[in-house]
Amino acid sequence: MVIEKLHDAGVRSEWAYTAAFASIGLSFLSWYASKNKEPAGIDRADRWGIFVGQWAPTFFGLGNALRSYEK
After folding, report:
1. Domain assignment of residue 23, given as a range
2. How many CB atoms lie within 10 A of CB 48?
3. What is residue 50's predicted lDDT score, i.e. its pLDDT?
4. Is residue 2, in this structure, part of any structural domain at all?
5. 55 lies in some domain
6. pLDDT tens digits for range 12-71
7. Residue 38 pLDDT
8. Transmembrane ranges (predicted)?
9. What was the pLDDT predicted at 60?
10. pLDDT value at residue 3
11. DSSP 59-70
12. What contacts 24+ positions apart, CB below 8 Å, involve 35-38?
C-alpha cells in the first residue's frame, strides 16, 4: 500500500537507490565533519556516522520494493 502510493506519487526505484548511495557518502562526510569541527570528540562523530549510515538500508529496501512493483 505504501509502495503503491509512493509509485503513484512519482517516486521511482532509481531515486531510492541514488538516495541510498548518497546517504553512504553523507555518513562518511558527517563523521569526518563532526570529528574535525566539534570539540565533543570521536564518540559523537561515531554516533553521527552510524545514525546517517542507517538510512542506506532503508533506501535500498524501498528501491527493491519499488523495483518489484514497477515490474
Report:
1. 12-70
2. 21
3. 87
4. no
5. yes
6. 999 999 999 999 999 988 888 888 777 777 878 888 888 888 999 999 999 999 999 998
7. 74
8. 15-34
9. 97
10. 93
11. HHHHHHHHHHHH
12. none
* pLDDT given at position 35: 81
Total tally of structural domains belonging to the chain: 1
Phi/psi region, residue 38 (left: phi>0; alpha: psi -120 to 50; beta: rest), is: beta
End-to-end Cα distance, the chain: 16
Residue 46 near residue 31 (C-beta atoms within 8 A) = yes
What distance in Å separates the CA atoms of residue 56 and residue 45, rounded to the nearest whole number? 18
Provide the whole-model pTM: 0.81
In degrees, rounded to 5, the angle at the alpha carbon of residue 49 between the alpha carbons of residues 20 and 61 is 25
Q: Are 30 and 44 in contact (CB under 8 A)?
A: no
Residue 5 belongs to some domain of the structure: no
Residue 29 falls inside a structural domain: yes
